[in-house]
Amino acid sequence: MNTTEYTTKEMKDFLANMKGKYDLARVVDPTECRILTMNDNGQFSLGERCYGIWQSGQRCVNCSSAIACKTGCHREKNERFQDQIYHIESKPVKLILADGETYDVAIELVSIRKEEEVTGHVNERALEDISDSAIRYLADYDTLTSTLKEESFYEKTRAMLNHEADEEWMMITADILQFRLFNNLFGVEKGNAVLVGLADQLREITIKNLGICGRLRGDKFALLLRKKDFHEEPLIKAAHFMNTHFSSGVYTLCVHFGVYEITDKAIPVPLMCDRANMALRTIHSNLNATIAHFEDMIIRQGLIEQEILSSFEKSLEDGRFVIYLQSINNPNGKPLSAEALARWINEDGSVIPPDSFIPTLEKASFIHKLDKFVWEQAVRKLASWDNDLTLSVNISPKDFYCLDVYDVISSLCRQYNVPCERLRLEITESAMIENPSKVYPVIEKLQNAGFLIEIDDFGTGQSSLGLLKDLKADVLKIDRAFLRETENTRRSQIILQSVISMAKDLGMQIIVEGVETSKQLNSLISMGCECFQGFYFSRPLPIPEFEEKYLAVR
Ligand code: C2E
Ligand code: CA
Ligand code: CA
Hints:
Elements: E1 4-7, H1 8-18, E2 24-29, E3 34-38, E4 44-49, H2 64-71, E5 75-81, E6 84-96, E7 102-114, H3 115-118, H4 130-140, E8 148-149, H5 150-163, E9 169-176, H6 179-186, H7 188-209, E10 212-217, E11 220-226, H8 232-246, E12 255-261, H9 269-281, E13 291-293, H10 294-317, E14 321-329, E15 335-345, E16 351-352, H11 358-363, H12 367-384, E17 390-395, H13 399-402, H14 405-416, E18 423-428, H15 429-434, H16 436-449, E19 452-458, H17 464-470, E20 475-478, H18 480-486, H19 490-505, E21 509-513, H20 518-526, E22 531-533, E23 541-542, H21 543-551
Parallel strand pairs: 1-6, 8-10, 12-13, 15-17, 17-18, 18-19, 19-20, 20-21, 21-22
Antiparallel strand pairs: 2-3, 2-7, 3-4, 5-6, 6-7, 9-11, 9-12, 10-11, 14-15, 14-23, 15-16
Bound molecules: ligand C2E and calcium ion (CA) (2 copies).
Ligand C2E binds near residues 342, 355, 480, 514 and 515.
């Protein structure tokens, strides 16, 4: 446990600083039950009985400061006298004396409230008796780090936001980079010491500023502070402390913070934490960054989206969008088909993957322009090949609103004289579920014309099985997320096996996406799969490379 050390001068300054924030800030020796008075030179004397303030004639049952000193952890407790509740936060510290020796004492930060005031307030525990308060403490606080447990943190945050409705607040989350690696390298005991160390640092910030601190899970902590008390410097100092105390030659300990200014107090508290976490993730792999703000992230994202939208149409006209082809293979590696996937080529020749621009194009209802282009490229390619390969293209849910999908696709096949059977149409599960009345009739018309309909990303939606009941699609593309899970769990394998058997019984072809290893391939073959798409066979390739790899040998 690393208990903070203070000189008597620092301690006096600290107490002075706490004056306006608490009704009482003092240092006590909990074994003697006495209040300490100090000068600036490391000398002290024992003063009045500490429990005298709540008019108790004897030492307190379960004294929070005694437990704090014994365990090295922050403790809280309530005492009551007449209609007053004394909420005591006890923090164990070491006082450095004139002779250089240290002396174990506790800082007590006391808030005094009238009983009726604390109802519904964060200090609602004050209404309970002392033993209830001890039980409640265990229920509310994480035993390892003495910070609030996740649910209690959410509850107390909500209570504080409601109670001080005019106040402005900040939600901060903290996370240790690659903490799992630290645990693997040094063991759980050292890992726990890191968590306690970080919790101490964070609690120091919240105690000084009357905020609260909780451990959400694992190495993820959250802090609630008033906006006026929020400063980046203590966070940076805490990260620096952790970095210097726990890094080693093989591991650099790096703490990151995400900050969300609570502009909308009505949203659920976990969502506030998510927003802080979203900001945090933007610097997750950056060893040099410490703090990221949600607001900055939104502004940055907005700028990126603006840039995408403003340059999209010109890029399409200038031929800076191309299609890559990724093969779909049989167990022996023979290509049966391929999926056309969009790529945006930067001015410097670098390739931008679709995940960076497709969500933005979808949001702005621009995606149909790109999809129409991709469909035409695919159909032209099919027309140019002298073989029986088929190609599949993606249809975005938004396309059904912006285009007559049936008319555009069937016209393209007519124009290039390509049989409809050679173009496969991938529609995501979610698109089908979101608006069945719009999508189903179009799908039926396309199927009647001879196009093969594939349900894309199967297994990621909400009602995958229900979909199979209602829609007679021809092909089921099982999402790669499904495959990731099956590596470890027997249950997932059983589910996957059932989906495969069911799809077969329904007369559907199955393609499993994301096959990366021979182990996965063999396991899927044993389950009865015959078509695979994944890096094990090939990544998506520029058309010339795809043709060289596959068409030369066919
Ligand atoms: P998708 O339709 O599920 O396409 C398959 C994605 O999985 C491709 O990513 C492919 O590179 C990736 N993939 C294939 N095998 C593996 C594997 O073994 N391991 C891993 N980790 N990934 C694999 P890509 O090309 O980045 O496309 C991402 C998504 O973007 C596509 O997911 C699709 O939803 C969308 N997309 C791509 N092109 C278009 C398009 O022209 N129109 C529309 N509407 N969406 C498109
Ligand atoms: Ca797809
Ligand atoms: Ca897919």
